[in-house]
Amino acid sequence: MKKFILILSIFIFTVSFSFAVISPKEQIKKTVDKVISILKDPKYKGKEKTQQRRAALRAEIGKVFDFEEMSKRSLGVYWRERTSQEKKEFIELYKDLLERSYIEKIESYTDEEIVYTDERIENNKYAEVKTKIITKERKEIPIDYRLYFTGSEWKVYDIVIEGVSLVSNYRSQFTKIIRNHSYQELVKRMKNKQIEEITREK
How many angstroms separate the Cα of 76 from the Cα of each of 70, 130, 135, 172, 173? Predict the structure, then answer.
């Protein structure tokens, strides 16, 4: 009897937990809806509100993007060679770079239609959510999100915009710089890029 109760308890907990976790598509839709609501909000409109608007967007994006996982994938084999401090520094620089890339792509879209075309889940561990932004001119801009399951929620580890993977694209650039120069040179360029972008926003 005790064994039956234990098995039943485990089953009930498992079923309850599975219902508590939202699907990859729902996770992306929830985030994108919030991002669009920020872009539409009058209090964030205008060039003078750029910093406030982007701060709000970053806060929302940060809830679902796993920047550490993205950093690992973008540095590839060079990630293992980094010290704990170097990893921490790189994650912060890369987070800033990725957020800017993503935000600049979606910032001009407010009244466009967003269609969720497909959701594929592999072994309950990895997933891809395909979306399309349909402009007023009926041009379709595909943005796909790649996610992995942490054990409690789905997190984004890559974004494919118009067929180009942000992680793969950056990994190619980073590898070239490290091979031709050094890791230190890569960090230097990322810092300079960050300063340029901050200055441009002011």
Answer: 10, 25, 35, 10, 12
Residue 124 · residue 149 · CB < 8 Å: yes
pTM: predicted TM-score of the whole model, two decimal places: 0.81
Residues 6+ apart with CB under 8 A from 127: 24, 119, 120, 121, 146, 147, 148, 149, 154
CATH code, domain with 70? 3.10.450.710
Q: What domain count does the chain have?
A: 1
**Is 119 in contact with 25 (CB distance < 8 Å)?**
yes
CB atoms within 10 A of CB 5: 9
Task: List residues bridging with 141 in a β-sheet.
Answer: 133
Decide: 201 and 50 in contact? Cβ < 8 Å.
yes
141 three-state secondary structure = strand
pLDDT, tens only, 53-95: 889 999 999 999 999 999 999 999 999 999 999 999 999 999 9
Question: Using CA atoms in the order 46, 31, 160, 43, what is the torsion angle rounded to 10 degrees?
Answer: 0
Are 170 and 160 a contacting pair, CB within 8 Å?
Answer: no
For residue 167, give the amino acid letter. V
- Least Cα distance to 154 among 26, 19, 14, 9 occurs for 26
Q: What's the CA gap between 36 and 24, in Å, rounded?
A: 18
- Whole domain around residue 121: which residue ranges? 24-201
